[in-house]
C-alpha cells in the first residue's frame, strides 16, 4: 500500500505576549501541523491533551493545582531550526520517499532554582512519521531530534535524541514524542530554544514558537 506524501507543512506562529509577566505555571507553545493540508496553531490550556500533560505534569492527566511560587520566570522562546521542521528519507523525487517526519507540537517548562541561580528547562517535541511510496514493508525508522539552548551566539546546552519509531501494520502514519529534561539555564541570560529534525549543525530560523 502506498501513501501520498503531502507538501511539507508551513508552520504558523503564535508569539508570546512580551508585556505580560508569566507565572511559574507551565508555559507551552503549540504548533499543530496537518500532514494532509494546511495547519493551525493553538494555545495551551489546563488539561489540553496527553502530549502537553506529559510535558507539564509527567503523566497523562492534570494533577491538583499547587500554589504558585513567589518568583516569576520568563520561559524562553522556542524556535524551529531552519530546515529542521521536517525530514524526508529516500530519493529526491516524491515517488522515491521512504519516510517523512515532521514536527507538529513543541512545549517547554521552566522550574526555578535557588534565588539568582537560574532555572531548569524541560523541552518536549512531538512529531508525525509518514510512510512514503517507496517505504514498502520498512515501517521502522529513527527520528533525530536536536535541541539547542542559546544566549545570542553562545550555546548554553545542546541535546540530541534519537527516537525509535514504528508505523503499525495497516496504517500509513504514527506520532512520536521526545522529551529533554534537566537543562540548566543560568541566571541573568535571555536564551532562545531551537529544535529541529536532522543533524545538530542546522542554522536557526527566527520563527518563534512560544
Helical residue percent band: under 10%
Tally of individual helices: 1
Q: What shape does the CA trace take?
A: globular
Assembly type of the chains comes to single chain
Strand order of the largest sheet: 8-7-10-3-11
Kindly name the structural category: mainly beta
Query: What number of domains?
Result: 1
Mean pLDDT comes to: 75
Rg, nearest Å: 18 Å
Strand/helix succession: EEHEEEEEEEEE
Question: Major sheet: size, sense and barrel closure?
Answer: 5 strands, mixed
Give the amount of beta strand, in percent.
Answer: 35-45%
Low-pLDDT regions: 1-46, 202-207
Number of strands: 11
Structure description:
With 210 residues, the chain is mainly β. It has one domain (32-208). 4% of the residues lie in helices and 44% in strands. The chain contains one helix and eleven strands, in the order E-E-H-E-E-E-E-E-E-E-E-E. A five-stranded mixed sheet has the order 8-7-10-3-11, with no helix packed on it. The protein has a four-stranded antiparallel sheet with strand order 4-5-6-9. A two-stranded antiparallel ribbon has the order 1-2. Strand 1 (32-33) and strand 2 form a beta hairpin. The longest helix is centred in the first third of the chain and has 8 residues, at 50-57. It is globular and about 55 Å long. The N and C termini lie far apart (38 Å).
